[in-house]
Design a protein that fits this description.
Layout lengths: L1 H24 L4 H17 L2 H4 L4 H24 L19 H16 L2 H11 L5 H8 L3 H26 L1
């Protein structure tokens, strides 16, 4: 029992921050992020064998948290109808800076990411900000590698288009 508790503490220390920022990129509020992470770790505490079977902890945890997020969205859709469950803008996805240009870039990047369809945003965030491989991303989102690479390419192209005017303004 003590070993599994220490393992759970280690896993939390190593991965909770990444899971939190991943959920923020999905337009979860801070409280929703905390609730989903708590659900995940309660599940792992009750069933420690789940994580023991994982080859790579981070992709496994990302997959679990993504599925919990999707379950929450489905539940909200059932209770509230087909309205937009996450219409509020993302905030605090990137650390605020003191440099005016960096702060403007951060704001533009958050807006550009928010404009992406969620299936593209998930892939782009996992690849660029979490350093996940396409294979790991395919596992997280439950799609083929071909689908994941296409979503990444489309997402990055849309980000380039959205950020081009800002980049040209700085040049």
């Amino acid at each position: 029992m003590a070993d599994s508790r220490k393992d759970l503490e280690r896993i939390y220390d190593e991965h909770a921050n990444h899971l939190f920022h991943f959920l923020l990129s999905l337009r979860c509020t801070e409280s929703e992020c905390r609730d989903l992470i708590q659900q995940l770790f309660l599940k792992l505490a009750r069933r420690p064998h789940l994580i023991q079977r994982a080859r790579n902890e981070r992709p496994f945890l990302m997959k679990m948290i993504y599925r919990l997020h999707l379950d929450e969205l489905r539940q909200k859709m059932r209770h509230s109808g087909p309205s937009k469950p996450h219409a509020e803008p993302m905030t605090d996805l990137f650390e605020a800076g003191t440099d005016v240009d960096a702060e403007t870039m951060r704001r533009h990047l958050e807006q550009a990411l928010q404009a992406l369809p969620e299936n593209q945003r998930v892939v782009v965030v996992l690849k660029l900000w979490h350093g996940s491989t396409f294979s790991d991303i395919a596992q997280v989102v439950g799609e083929s590698m071909g689908t994941v690479t296409s979503r990444y390419r489309y997402g990055v192209n849309k980000l380039k288009d959205e950020l081009r005017p800002f980049y040209q303004e700085l040049s």
